[in-house]
Backbone:
């Protein structure tokens, strides 16, 4: 490493650990989980830089004893080296005496030279990640060789400066972590907000105060609110059924014979339709007769309702077709609703996405067999509240603008969330380039400290591949 | 409906009249302040405070453009009035009204109000009602200046302001704390009747002192105090500037300082600050002011956001210093969502300035009103009853000296001695009940409440990143060493 600041030195990771505790991985075959055994950490239990203590498995004391050389002490740093490489966590006091598997290694920072916190921060830094990438082996399951981990280069500053660096990183990453925690609430709240807006919309709250120009459900099957236990509606609104305000039809049934038909047409499947969203990257074709084609040809403004075969919250997900792919037909697992002019497609869409609409869908979709499905007749029977066209237009406009606001905000929040991760990385990068905190010429240079330690150890076993490059 | 709420509703209803004149809620309250003040002087026979030729009666009887012109000239003239109070209310006063009909609507409606009943109930209550309506309205943006009244009342009941005490609010807003303290004292002295004339004079003229930086808010606070029979006391100054040093030493400080960083990252300019001289974080600096402004033995209750409890570096030095100089006996963790404008997480610190400067805090009692709290908001507003359990636990002694009982890990009320807090590096963000914030938010149903929760999280995240970005500025070796020292 070149360009190290004054007083810094580079040493190998092998030299940065306590001489009696080399970098090592753990138990090869821990055997079945024991109730009262010795806990051991797998990389899966390292989440967000911490060990999930409640998830730990245990091995027998006999096996643990055989692997006593990889036993853990409080303050040891763990590094995952198989699968997801580079997860880092520090061993808490409760886990002293525990162990690890062969998928991670133990790094016990040498107190005379550095600290647990400095080591852990380094192993998360871009500098360490670059070295992981260079040393990575395996394609299906990436892994690091212990020899390569031991040979990694660690930049060390004078000890007082290390303490300043750690304090600064802790302070900065503490703030970024809290910011991240706050942003993690956003996606859930955004979904809730949308549901609340839809609920308010069909209670009439969004258009309160508008002139109500009479009931718009002429020609529709009026549902008696009391008889079917539907909620009371705002003045000027009425309950209708989907079948009463539109044509509900099925699509093409798939079978082997269709392959040989001369007429092949693009058609939508369940995989193309999500809640208020069409995914049209992959559109399949199917053979059909001219009569079938005329019957199932989609037209702009049709609603597509997913019939079933998923979990209950996926049934009845619905989107509006705006003739994105002209001449498109649809599969029988998508139920098509062609609405009368009296009902705006987006109005019906938002109703079917709203808490009230969802409740109605889920009520008819459940069955005794445990398989949840819709059918043409079930969709026909779904209730829908109707109001004047002017009010529908206004309502759709307000829902759209509320959704647009919250989606913009949500996408800003998620970009910020990603930027915070990058901020942490850049803080660590600066830290190990010696740019995060100022140097103090009065501090003992790392090279002097190293010389002292090495001469003290002259009688002890030799360090493996100590290298020194004092700047 | 009482007469006061009736009148408040009527006056508030008039606001809609002015919407088409482009008048915002805030401007409307200011406009009403001018007019109500003039009407009140007429009703109370104190019009001699006004310069000759400018009277409510002369204004109200005019019509059309003539009335609007008279009104404009009147505001200009009164801003120059010799009477200190009149001058303070009308300084830089300008009307936002452009249509003469709107002015007429206001003057005739104000003339028709049932002033007799309103005076019986107190004009002050009426005005407070208007301020509260304004704060509750999200569009006004006034919520940040407005501490929820049930919280203020709870704090005042616990702190038991006494006649003869100097009571200060260094971030006065619309003077809610001072007015509530005044009401408490009046309730306990038969409206000052049981006091000597000298004591009563002190209550009216010298008991209350405050500072409010924003000129328009300051105007509202003056009016609010005046309507409660308190003259002067609120200064239009920045507490964090040298002006703040001049505030008189207080026996009791009740305040809810502004949250956030000083605009443009400015530092306090107080020559007497040592702990927070380098921070742009306003609430930390306010805590330093409060400790310095307390007379020995004086007590304080301060609403602060969570970061004062856990912030490293300056925050931690401030807490250590506070716990040395004062007996920080109680922390109340407030529920989220109780402030009108934002979803910030707040606490109340209760402490007493020691007679010595060392080791005054022996133990801190924490009441967690936040965990498993209902989701407060539009559908479930905060009420006086919500504080009953906390008040019972706090006990009858204002300084937290009543016998208290730690109710264990499953309860909301626990004691942490000084050694335990030292073990936590003087981090006072103490919670032991399972965090169910996500569950509480799950219970929100109104779009407004959910939007407020979203904005709250975004603001909190923003604030963390702002402080972080501040901290990324290069330090000197000494500063860096101080940080390392504080963390050690």
Residues:
């Amino acid at each position: 490493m070149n360009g190290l600041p004054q007083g810094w030195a580079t040493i190998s990771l092998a030299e940065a650990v306590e001489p009696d505790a080399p970098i090592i991985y753990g138990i090869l075959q821990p055997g079945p989980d024991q109730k009262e055994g010795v806990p051991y950490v797998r990389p899966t239990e390292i989440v967000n830089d911490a060990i999930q203590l409640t998830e730990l498995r245990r091995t027998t004391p006999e096996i643990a004893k055989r692997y006593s050389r990889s036993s853990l002490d409080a303050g040891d740093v763990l590094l995952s080296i198989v699968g997801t490489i580079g997860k880092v966590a520090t061993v808490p006091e409760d886990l002293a005496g525990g162990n690890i598997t062969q998928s991670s290694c133990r790094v016990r920072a040498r107190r005379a030279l550095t600290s647990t916190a400095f080591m852990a921060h380094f192993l998360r830094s871009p500098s360490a990640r670059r070295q992981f990438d260079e040393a990575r082996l395996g394609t299906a399951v990436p892994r690091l060789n212990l020899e390569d981990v031991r040979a990694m280069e660690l930049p060390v500053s004078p000890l007082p400066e290390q303490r300043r660096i750690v304090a600064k990183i802790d302070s900065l990453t503490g703030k970024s972590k809290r910011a991240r925690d706050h942003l993690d609430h956003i996606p859930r709240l955004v979904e809730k907000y949308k549901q609340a807006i839809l609920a308010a919309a069909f209670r009439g709250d969004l258009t309160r105060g508008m002139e109500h120009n009479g009931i718009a459900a002429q020609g529709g099957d009026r549902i008696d609110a009391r008889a079917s236990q539907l909620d009371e509606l705002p003045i000027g609104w009425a309950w209708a059924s989907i079948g009463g305000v539109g044509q509900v039809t099925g699509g093409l049934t798939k079978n082997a014979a269709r392959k040989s038909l001369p007429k092949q047409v693009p058609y939508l499947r369940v995989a193309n339709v999500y809640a208020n969203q069409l995914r049209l990257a992959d559109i399949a074709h199917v053979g059909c007769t001219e009569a079938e084609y005329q019957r199932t040809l989609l037209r702009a403004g049709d609603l597509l309702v997913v019939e079933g075969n998923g979990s209950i919250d996926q049934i009845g997900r619905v989107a509006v077709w705006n003739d994105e792919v002209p001449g498109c037909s649809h599969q029988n697992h998508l139920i098509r609703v062609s609405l009368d002019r009296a009902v705006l497609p987006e109005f019906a869409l938002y109703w079917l996405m709203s808490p009230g609409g969802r409740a109605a869908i889920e009520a008819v979709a459940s069955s005794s067999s445990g398989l949840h499905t819709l059918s043409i007749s079930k969709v026909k029977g779904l209730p829908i509240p109707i109001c004047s066209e002017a009010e529908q237009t206004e309502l759709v406009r307000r829902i759209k603008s509320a959704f647009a606001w919250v989606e913009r905000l949500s996408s800003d929040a998620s970009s910020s969330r990603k930027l915070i991760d990058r901020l942490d990385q850049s803080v660590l990068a600066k830290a190990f380039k010696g740019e995060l905190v100022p140097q103090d010429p009065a501090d003992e240079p790392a090279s002097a400290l190293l010389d002292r330690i090495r001469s003290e150890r002259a009688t002890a076993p030799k360090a493996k591949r100590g290298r020194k490059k004092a700047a | 409906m009482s007469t006061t709420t009736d009148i408040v509703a009527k006056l508030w209803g008039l606001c809609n009249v002015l919407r088409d004149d482009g008048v915002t809620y805030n401007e409307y309250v200011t406009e009403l302040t001018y007019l109500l003040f003039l009407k009140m002087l007429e009703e109370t026979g104190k019009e001699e405070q006004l310069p000759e030729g400018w009277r409510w009666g002369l204004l109200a009887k005019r019509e059309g453009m003539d009335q609007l012109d008279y009104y404009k000239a009147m505001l200009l003239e009164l801003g120059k009035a010799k009477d200190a109070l009149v001058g303070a209310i009308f300084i830089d006063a300008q009307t936002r009204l452009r249509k003469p009909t709107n002015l007429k609507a206001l003057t005739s409606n104000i003339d028709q109000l049932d002033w007799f009943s309103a005076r019986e109930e107190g004009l002050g209550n009426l005005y407070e009602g208007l301020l509260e309506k304004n704060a509750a309205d999200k569009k006004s943006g006034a919520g940040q200046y407005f501490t929820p009244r049930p919280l203020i009342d709870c704090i005042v009941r616990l702190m038991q302001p006494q006649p003869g005490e100097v009571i200060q609010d260094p971030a006065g807003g619309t003077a809610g704390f001072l007015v509530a303290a005044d009401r408490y004292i009046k309730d306990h002295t038969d409206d000052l009747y049981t006091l000597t004339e000298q004591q009563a004079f002190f209550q009216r003229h010298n008991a209350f002192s405050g500072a409010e930086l924003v000129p328009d808010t300051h105007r509202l606070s003056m009016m609010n105090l005046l309507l409660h029979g308190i003259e002067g006391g609120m200064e239009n100054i920045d507490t964090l500037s040298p002006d703040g040093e001049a505030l008189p030493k207080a026996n009791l400080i009740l305040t809810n300082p502004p949250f956030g960083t000083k605009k443009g990252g400015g530092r306090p300019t107080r020559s007497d600050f040592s702990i927070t001289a380098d921070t742009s974080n306003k609430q930390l600096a306010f805590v330093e002011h409060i400790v310095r402004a307390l007379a020995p033995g004086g007590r304080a209750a301060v609403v602060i956001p969570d970061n004062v409890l856990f912030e490293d570096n300056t925050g931690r030095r401030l807490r250590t210093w506070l716990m040395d100089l004062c007996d920080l006996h109680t922390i109340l963790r407030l529920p989220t969502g109780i402030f009108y404008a934002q979803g910030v997480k707040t606490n109340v610190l209760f402490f007493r300035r020691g007679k010595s400067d060392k080791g005054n805090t022996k133990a801190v009692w924490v009441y967690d009103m936040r965990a498993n709290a209902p989701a407060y908001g539009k559908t479930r507003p905060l009420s006086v009853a919500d504080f009953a359990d906390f008040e019972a636990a706090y006990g009858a002694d204002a300084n937290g000296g009543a016998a208290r009982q730690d109710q264990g890990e499953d309860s909301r009320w626990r004691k942490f001695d000084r050694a335990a807090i030292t073990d936590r590096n003087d981090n006072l963000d103490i919670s032991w009940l399972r965090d169910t914030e996500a569950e509480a938010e799950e219970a929100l149903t109104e779009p407004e409440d959910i939007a407020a929760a979203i904005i709250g999280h975004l603001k909190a995240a923003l604030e963390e990143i702002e402080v972080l970005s501040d901290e990324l500025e290069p330090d000197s070796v000494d500063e860096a060493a101080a940080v390392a020292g504080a963390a050690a």
Observations:
- The longest strand of chain A covers residues 334-339.
- Chain A is about 35% helix and 15% strand.
